[in-house]
Prior knowledge:
This protein is of the alpha/beta class. 29% of the residues lie in helices and 27% in strands.
Amino acid sequence: MSDKIIYPARRLRGEIEVPGDKSISHRAVMLGSIARGTTEITHFLNGADCLSTISCFRKMGITIEEKPDCVLVQGKGLRGLSAPDGALYTGNSGTTTRLLCGILAGQDFPAVLSGDASLNARPMQRIMTPLGQMGAELSSLSNNGCAPLSVTPGALHGIKYQSPVSSAQIKSAILLAGLYADDETSVTEPALSRNHTELMLQNFGAHVSSVLHVEGGATALVTPPDELYAQQVWVPGDISSAAYFIAAGLLVPNSEILVKNVGTNFTRAGFLKICEEMGGDITLLNRSFKGGESRADVLVRSSSLKGTVIEGDLIPTLIDEIPIIAVMAACAKGTTTIRDAAELKVKETNRIDTVTENLQAMGGDVTPTEDGMVIRGGSPLKSIRARSRLDHRIAMSFAVAGLIAPGETIIEDGQCIDISYPEFFETLESCVER
Ligand code: S3P
């Protein structure tokens, strides 16, 4: 995989549009495949992760056409998938793997799922336990609680599951299996994680209710439908991809950029809150709402940032943005403390380690903790050879750091950005002035 070189930026200018939301793109293909009729998905993310989802459903007999301006999914209904010939390959994608297990639990054929080395090291017991309680049999073929996984469906029962962690992947796997259960299925999590599955299931005709508890936590409940029905899905721009440009606009002096059509669903928008709390000059323009998802254009102007505390219920709303927030914190005045974020350890890499390793190498003052990190901002960053360790979010975060470091910053295996943002480096070049 190729390295990428980043040079310092004088300023950022212009308007950009980021690719479609990864979480929503996955779900649109999945629900489209098990709905009746043709689902049309516009602004679909052509990243490697979402292409893994497409290829798994094609292997189960679903026709999916990738057109220049949309993706068409010829759904065959809740019980229309057919047994794949061989294992389903889920690449680097945790979302594909975990959500697919939920759907596979309700089919009438067994299947095996496997991914790349990083995926096959990520914890799967978190979905094996609840799906097992519902009546499916999931086993880790390496006996280590990780993929490859075999999924043997069973007659599924509705359950009331208390998830020990806030994770949309766990919640969604259970809700998707709940479509095939004999009764209602609910998932309660300690804090609300992204709710795209709940919103999209409702649009496709399932009855889903969601409750935020006054004492903390949230419950989502699905009633098994007779069928789901095809929809038009307009995918908003991915706020997790927009975050790199928003951060770059804030950090590089004399910048002003407009990031258009960014998804601003409140279960995802913690990053925008933190930018404001850190003193970032951002303005939301042209707010709109389509298909249950809100969106806006984000106007960003360079700002001097200050440290903050990021914890509790906010964490699931910005979990994927913590690497870039750490870069912002290293450039801010004062200390930023991130806690309650132990989930960072089980992402594409252990992101507490990979952020710490690179920030320290750049001269940043960061102390890793059990569930986050403490970053004392203000030390000037120097250019390094940043180790992405094949984690797309680490590659993009340190590409942004490279804009403010003097000299050449090399992003090792930078091409891993293909997972979620294949045009990242081209878009960055289009708005950087040197
Ligand atoms: C995702 C959920 C998040 C996130 C991941 C995508 C999803 O994981 O980190 O990139 O699409 O459901 P968890 O909710 O499991 O933490």
